[in-house]
Q: What sequence folds into this?
């Protein structure tokens, strides 16, 4: 059981690592830019990749190839393969992971503006994956500083901080999220929007962490090793830095891993509703906003692929978080 | 004793509510523009009308005064008028709150009914084939956001036609007989309830299982077994009662999370609820409507927590002695 759990966690870690890697090296992984439109080819279905050719009744395996597509009916947006010429897929050439000379390749089809869905998915991961990571990092930074100070120093500051966290936590998260999203002005640069969303998510997220860390500090500060450090004449800041924070580390690591999914979901929810990352910028969330149209959803179900990416990421993070918790914390089996 | 506890908790809610509404008010006033911004662009509306509206809604006053005025209104049970809908905020919210409440409560009930037996069986028969299968399924369950499930259900409904594709009621709802009306409502509830319940079922099952396992190893269970108490009695009387307790509080607290989830599912499945109302309010910068929505949302959350705490006092005598 133990070894299989470990191998599953390693597999999850590998998938996650590859996802982050593909987001970082998006220009190399994605065959096209997330902005490049091909208005002549809207809502194209995924390009089918062929591996075999049929000759005189026998089947022969060849290098994967595709056909060029042509829009056969503009009203129903039906596409047809042009079987007269085969275009082989080349790997690791032209500065791309895969490349086809002479024909467009859309492994996940195109959207209404003829933009390559797969390329947008890869670029979208940049925002969705890193918003979670940075958002959790900032919330945790604030939570750990505020929580330790509140728990260790106590007094009026503790009371004031705890009341503030109660207020923040008494708002349904999503309502708070929507209200905060109105602060993002329309027409600011994508980098600003990205930063503002992180600020919003951290503003909501720090309260919960601060409360848990305060509780842990309250029990830690009565322990002998902290008393000893105090008896040696260490300063408050020294005790916090050398005694308290290292003891909070295992909780922190597990909690960070298990908190990222919430941030990813919040970002996608905001962007899906049109209040987060806005067109033409791309995130996994705003790619889903097109799917709220039932007709579009049923004719092109592959537009849910960004949702699949979100689920895979969350699943991997949960697996890793649970594994870390089981390893670090011996009380939980 | 209990009465005093409830009164104390209700009184403590007042400063929290004031804090919540004040923070929200400040946030909204930080946002660029207000509801009149779009009206100002309209050449058919004169400057005079704009000025009159500004005066009427108190938009030109300083922040603190505006908040004070709003609070004064609320104390008189008047949440103001929605500029977007041209209707009193209170009646708008009341008409929607029922839908959201029905949705959230049904989702909680459904998740309880499914998760309880699953978690109990998994916990008692730890490491069995059932437990392992349920474990894997639950793992996927907690990782699928309910808004994505809503999309999947919408896709299935549209492809097969077995369920209506969103909406609170059918277009011809008004013409139906009372029995058909109830049937129509239930049919429209199935998809959002499934979307909200699946992640809940998964997380509840995991928690109940963990609790059962923990209680199973505790000393009083060993003692009961040593006394020769029948195995089934140990499970149903000693084990279950102690394992379910933490779960009751959880259900109350989760009500809050569900409100958020419900808002998203409402938007995707086009339901008339508080979530969609808030989204409309936020999009049009309708301040009173946003504030009213937040007030009701936070109130429902705080009440949910209170009910959970009261329920816990009833089931866990250890807590009663502390209050």
A:
């Amino acid at each position: 059981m133990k070894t299989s759990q470990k191998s599953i966690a390693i597999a999850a870690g590998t998938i996650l690592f590859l996802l982050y890697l593909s987001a970082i090296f998006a220009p190399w992984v994605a065959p096209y830019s997330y902005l490049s439109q091909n208005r002549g080819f809207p809502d194209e279905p995924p390009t089918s990749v062929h591996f075999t050719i049929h000759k005189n009744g026998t089947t022969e395996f060849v290098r994967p190839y595709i056909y060029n597509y042509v829009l056969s009916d503009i009203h129903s947006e039906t596409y047809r393969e042009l079987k007269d010429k085969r275009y082989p897929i080349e790997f690791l050439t032209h500065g791309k992971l895969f490349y086809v000379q002479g024909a467009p390749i859309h492994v996940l089809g195109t959207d209404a503006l003829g933009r390559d869905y797969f390329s947008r998915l890869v670029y979208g991961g940049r925002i969705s994956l890193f918003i979670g990571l940075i958002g959790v990092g900032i919330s945790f930074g604030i939570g750990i500083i505020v929580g330790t100070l509140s728990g260790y120093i106590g007094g009026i500051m503790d009371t004031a901080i705890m009341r503030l966290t109660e207020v923040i936590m008494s708002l349904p998260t999503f309502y708070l999220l929507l209200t905060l999203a109105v602060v993002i002005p329309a027409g600011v640069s994508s980098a600003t929007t990205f930063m503002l969303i992180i600020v919003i998510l951290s503003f909501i997220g720090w309260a919960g962490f601060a409360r848990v860390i305060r509780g842990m500090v309250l029990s830690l500060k009565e322990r002998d090793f902290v008393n000893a450090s105090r008896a040696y004449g260490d300063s408050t800041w020294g005790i916090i830095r050398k005694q308290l924070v290292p003891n909070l580390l295992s909780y922190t690591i597990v909690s960070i891993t298990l908190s990222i999914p919430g941030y990813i979901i919040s970002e996608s929810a905001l962007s899906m509703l049109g209040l987060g990352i806005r067109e033409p910028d791309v995130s996994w969330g705003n790619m889903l906003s097109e799917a709220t149209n039932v007709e579009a959803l049923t004719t092109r179900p592959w537009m849910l692929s960004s949702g699949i990416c979100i689920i895979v990421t969350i699943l991997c993070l949960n697996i890793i978080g649970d594994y870390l918790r089981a390893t670090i914390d011996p009380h939980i089996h | 004793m209990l009465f005093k506890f409830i009164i104390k908790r209700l009184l403590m809610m007042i400063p929290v509510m004031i804090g919540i509404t004040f923070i929200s008010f400040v946030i909204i006033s930080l946002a660029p523009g207000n509801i009149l911004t779009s009206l100002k662009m309209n050449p058919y509306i004169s400057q005079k009308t704009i000025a009159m509206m500004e005066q009427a809604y108190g938009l030109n006053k300083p922040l603190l005064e505006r908040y004070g005025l709003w609070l004064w209104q609320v104390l008189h049970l008047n949440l103001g008028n929605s500029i977007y809908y041209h209707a009193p905020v209170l009646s708008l919210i009341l008409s929607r709150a029922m839908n959201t409440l029905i949705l959230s409560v049904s989702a909680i009930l459904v998740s309880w009914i499914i998760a309880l037996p699953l978690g109990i069986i998994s916990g008692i028969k730890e490491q069995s084939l059932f437990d392992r299968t349920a474990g894997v399924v639950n793992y996927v369950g907690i990782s699928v956001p309910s808004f994505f499930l809503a999309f999947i259900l919408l896709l299935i409904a549209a492809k097969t036609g077995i369920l209506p594709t969103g909406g609170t009621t059918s277009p011809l709802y008004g013409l139906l007989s009372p029995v058909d009306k109830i049937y129509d409502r239930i049919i429209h509830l199935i998809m959002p309830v499934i979307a909200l319940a699946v992640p809940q079922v998964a997380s509840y099952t995991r928690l109940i299982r963990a609790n059962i396992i923990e209680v199973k190893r505790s000393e009083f269970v060993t003692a009961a077994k040593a006394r020769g108490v029948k195995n089934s009695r140990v499970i149903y009387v000693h084990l279950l009662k102690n394992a379910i307790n933490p779960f009751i509080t959880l259900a109350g607290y989760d009500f809050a999370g569900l409100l958020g989830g419900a808002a998203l599912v409402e938007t995707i499945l086009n339901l008339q609820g508080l979530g969609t109302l808030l989204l409309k309010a936020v999009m049009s910068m309708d301040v009173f409507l946003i504030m009213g929505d937040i007030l009701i949302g936070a109130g429902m959350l705080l009440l949910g927590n209170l009910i959970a705490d009261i329920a816990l006092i009833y089931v866990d005598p250890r807590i009663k002695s502390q209050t």
User: Anything to note?
Assistant: Residues 117-153 of chain A form the longest helix (37 residues).
